[in-house]
Each structure stands twice: as structure tokens, then as C-alpha cells.
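Researcher: Here's the sequence for the chain we discussed earlier.
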Amino acid sequence: MIRHATVDDLAAITDIYNHYIVDSHVSFDLEPWTPDQRRNWFANYGGDSPWQVWVTELDGEVIGAAWSSPFRPKAAYDPSVETTIVLKAGSSGRGLGTELYRALLSDVDARGAHRAYAIVALPNDASVALHRKLGFVSLGVQDEVGFKMGRYWSTMLLERRAPPAG
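Model: Thanks. This is the structure I predict for it:
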């Protein structure tokens, strides 16, 4: 099942995302999120907000989340969004992430976003492939832009144009 996230999903979303903070280079956050931080973050999402959070469930358990957020803080960037997707460790390879991301991107399109951007920490062949499959193109690599886990990491910036109206 794929649906909009609710406050009741925040513990699962936090657990899933914190895995990528603590155990990988994929998130450039350095400290795990607390439940209070996640609640404050979530207050900016849902309803009429241009930013939304979607989740996917398997057997009643939230195993993935995808969200859109502001791309940059300056007002001229408002027609663009940054997108993020995370799946519970061990849940990839079944197409669930693809369907979850499609739901988010459909919502992004319906809300009038002009561009969607994703920033993928490299190496991450699976994430790059997912984004390309869903219409993102690479704009380039930011070489060694972040430092985590004792080393520098590069990121790829990917862009997806909104489908033509009509």
C-alpha cells in the first residue's frame, strides 16, 4: 500500500532514515534524527503544502518513505523541489521503491512543480538507476562535496522536468 504519511508513521520514517545516517554515506546528516525533530520537520508537510511525504507499507509495516522538500531557501526556487526516497534496509529489489517514488512524483507534478531535483551520494548505482528510470537526468557530479565516516564523498545532481501540460 502506498499512501500519504501521517504523524503515526514518523517513528518508522525516523528509524528508516537514521539507518542511512549511522550506517552509510547515503545521508549527509551526521547525527540521527530525534522523534521531536521529525515531528517539527513533518509540520511543514501535508495538506495544501507543496511538500508531501508518502510511505509504502508491506504487511502493515512502513518500509519506505519518499518526500518532496524545498530545493533551495530563496523564493525564486519555489517552483522546484528536492526529492528523497529511503527504504528499510533489506527491502529493495522488489519494485516497491519505484512505485513509491512514482506516487511522489505524480503528486509533485499535480502540485505544479516545474523541476524535481535529487542529490545522490556516490557510489550508489541502485539510486542512480532508479532516478534515471523515472526520468531524471544527471546534471553532473559535485566532487568530494561532503565529509563523513572519515572520508570525502561526491554527489550526483539529477533533474526531472515536469511533464508537459495537457
